[in-house]
Structures are given as C-alpha cells and as structure tokens.
Specification:
- This protein is α/β, with parallel strands linked by helices.
- It is elongated, with a radius of gyration of 22 Å.
- Strands 2, 3, 6, 7, 8 and 9 form a six-stranded mixed β-sheet that branches. It has a three-stranded mixed β-sheet with strand order 1-5-4, with helices on one face.
- It has a single domain, classed as Rossmann fold (3-Layer(aba) Sandwich), CATH 3.40.50.10610.
Length: 190
C-alpha cells in the first residue's frame, strides 16, 4: 500500500511539473517592404550593423514604454537578434530601392570598397499610442564619391498597427523599417 501511495505521489509530482512547463516561444521576424526604386546612387554601399538602445536588446519583443515601464511580450520573441535583423532588413530594403547599387552589410563574408557607408542607431521601436508604432533612429551616411560628404539626421517615423496581436505590431515595425530605408535611399540617390 505504501508503495502505491509513493508511486501515486511521484506521478502527481510529475504531472504538476509538466503542467508548469511554459509554452514554447512564438518567434517573429521583420520582413522587407517594397518601396519606390530610385535611379542613381553609389555603386557599392556598406551598411554597418544597426546599433540598438539597450532596452531593445533582448529576445522578447518590447511593445511599448509607458509610465517608465517596459511592456515586454513574455513568450513572443524575435527570431534573431534585433540588431542583426534590422541590419539585414535595411540591406534588403535598400537593395530593392537602389537597384543599380550593390548593398552589403559590413561584418559579413563580403568586403568591398564602398562609395557610401550607412550607420543607424535605433533609439526607439514601440507603440506610442494604441494603434501607432513609433520608430526613432539616428542616421549617418558618408558619401565618398564624387566628393566626400556626410549627412546625419534623426528620423522619427510612425506606422499604423492594424490590431492588438503581436503579428500586427511586427507588421507595423516592418513598415516603419521600410520608411527608414526610404529616408536613407533619398540621401544616397537624391
């Protein structure tokens, strides 16, 4: 009888432990957004790794900052590091917008002598209102040809969030990243 009670207690403990196991995280990625192709632009463009505000540097998706608190999606994670994803996305978006340019991320396997370098500090990416996403980034572009010129500015962009789901937030973030690429492309090919 004691053996049955001990076995039953062990089984109950195992079931309780299994019930407490957290669900697998849901992974999300930002996707390129088509923009208007521009003529001209430097032949080779190097995009340096996007720098993030430290509060964004986590696997969980930070949806907003309100009353000095972060609203973090516990089981909704980025599919890769946000700085790496933003760099990849900027390269893809710029390559689509500047079809006569070769756009490369610095730090990858390919190294070229670029005629232009793009640097981005992502300062904000989150909801600014229930249906509005805000992206704020410092952008620096260095053009080497035909004459050296540097352009630096802050871009404050917004995108509509189409619903309360995390997927809608990620879609709006993709749209805002496309707007950022539009702004950078306008500097590279005015």
């Amino acid at each position: 009888m004691r053996l049955l009670r001990r076995d039953a207690a062990s089984l109950a403990a195992l079931f309780a432990l299994a019930a407490c196991r957290s669900a697998e995280p849901v992974l999300y990625t930002l996707l390129p957004v088509p923009g208007v192709p521009r003529r001209g632009g430097p032949r080779n463009i190097a995009v340096r790794e996007v720098s993030l505000a430290r509060y964004l540097d986590r696997v969980q998706i930070v949806r907003s900052v309100e009353d000095y608190r972060l609203a973090v999606s516990g089981n909704d994670w980025w599919g890769e590091n946000l700085d790496t994803m933003m760099t990849r996305l900027l390269v893809e978006n710029l390559a689509q917008r500047l079809p006569s340019s070769n756009v490369f991320a610095t730090g990858g396997a390919i190294s070229v002598s670029p005629e232009a370098t793009v640097e981005v500090n992502l300062q904000r990416l989150g909801q600014s209102a229930p249906a509005t996403l805000a992206l704020t980034a410092q952008v620096a572009v260095t053009l080497r040809e035909p004459r050296r010129r540097e352009v630096a500015r802050t871009e404050a962009l917004t995108a509509l969030i189409a619903g309360p789901e995390v997927a809608a937030f990620v879609g709006a973030a993709s749209t805002a990243a496309g707007q950022l690429a539009d702004a950078v492309a306008a500097i590279l090919a005015p």
